[in-house]
Specification:
With 287 residues, the protein is of the alpha/beta class. The chain has one domain (13-284): Ribonuclease Z/Hydroxyacylglutathione hydrolase-like (Metallo-beta-lactamase, Chain A). 23% of the residues lie in helices and 27% in strands. It contains eight helices and 14 strands. The protein has helices at residues 47-55, 74-77, 80-87, 153-159, 173-178, 183-190, 198-208, 228-241; strands spanning 16-22, 29-34, 37-43, 64-69, 90-94, 103-106, 112-114, 117-124, 130-137, 140-145, 164-168, 215-219, 248-251, 261-263. It binds zinc ion (2 copies).
Amino acid sequence: MSGEVAPRGGSAKPGLRLSILSSGSSGNVAYVEASGRGFLVDAGLSCRRVERLLARIGRGIDDVEAVLVTHGHTDHTSGIRSLVRKCGVQVYAARGVWDAPGVASVEVAEPFEVCGVEATYFEVPHDAPTCGLRLRTEGVSAAFATDLGEVTPQTLGWMSGARALVLEANHDPQWLRRGPYPEELKRRILSGSGHLSNQQAAEAALALAPHGLSEIVLAHLSETNNSPARACGTVARVLREAGYGRVRIRAAMRGRPTPWVEVDPCSGHPDDGCVRGLTDRLFGVGR
Ligand SMILES: [Zn+2]
Ligand SMILES: [Zn+2]
């Protein structure tokens, strides 16, 4: 399913589209595009690897105007220096989250504009100062929360109304508990400032489903303590049992861009006549 190329659409195409280029503890990068202009959310891979991944969705490094950093962990920031050096991209981060030279600090909870998109950082609980992101343009919105230990009511409030959600589903708790990680690391991952489990992601999806959610990309999956089928299956089952089987669920993977996720006024509910194949699911799980 990767390697799907979409025309830029130009200024006539409403809304935004995104692809998670790579996800997980080995490096996180997402590409977001609106009105033909693009930016990254995090850059935890080298410039050269980002360039290769962009090529698989029909884009180049020159399409990247900015990078929005969620937090300072190296799996989200290791490529930023090379991107700035080679491409001169503007880097944004919330104040106190990643204060590096040349980074534009913006206030948490205050909207700022990037590539014609209104972006807002919101705080999430993690073991470093960390933000999620809400992106809004032309009446539609998407939200990112890829490193967080729990979904608080405040986090849900920021994500509510998003048509597309990129949400962490790091581990299956049983797999983690029985797995090979040291006990201290297991405790940290399972804590309220660690990483979200599949079940926690499912509960958040369930809370957001009645508020216009139509696409979920599960992100930051552990290669040791999770699988795409396990993560998608857990979330799909919870949504389906509650009557929200229409929400499309995908898993972001390491080194393999997701198909484009279109976030536009026609990507909403199946009865609006605009939606194709909302019941499609990657891996065919959860049916
Ligand atoms: Zn992190
Ligand atoms: Zn991370």
